[in-house]
């Protein structure tokens, strides 16, 4: 995680993705690693959205209540124009965040901004 943290602070998303890919190789059952790997790929501008979706979904398979994975997967769906799927993850966060949470607020804002641009 130290390599990931250092790379992400520099916004070296390819380096962060490499660190998380190595972390997944050593502990494939860690949902945080899958979520951070997908996040790093997405932030690096990777065109391989299938790989991004695969790892967010793996994070959620390992931990269905992973708030970060729900938020970031929703944002990934917005990147490919699938607002309905993004809203599904917003609904999941609404249930997980009984008194509200930053993941819910951030995804809700991202959906609103996406919808405003689409008009």
Largest sheet: none
Total beta-strand segments: 0
Order of helices and strands: HHHHHHH
| Tally of contiguous helical segments | 7
Radius of gyration: 14 Å
Strand content: under 5%
Quickly give the structural class: mainly alpha
Backbone shape: globular
Distance from N terminus to C terminus (CA atoms, Å) equals 41 Å
Helix content: over 70%
Poorly predicted runs: none
What average pLDDT do the residues reach?
Answer: 93
Summarize the structure.
The chain is an all-alpha fold and 119 residues long.
What this model shows, in words?
The protein is mainly alpha-helical and 119 residues long. The protein has seven helices and no strands. The longest helix is centred in the last third of the chain and has 17 residues. The model has no long low-confidence stretch (mean pLDDT 93).
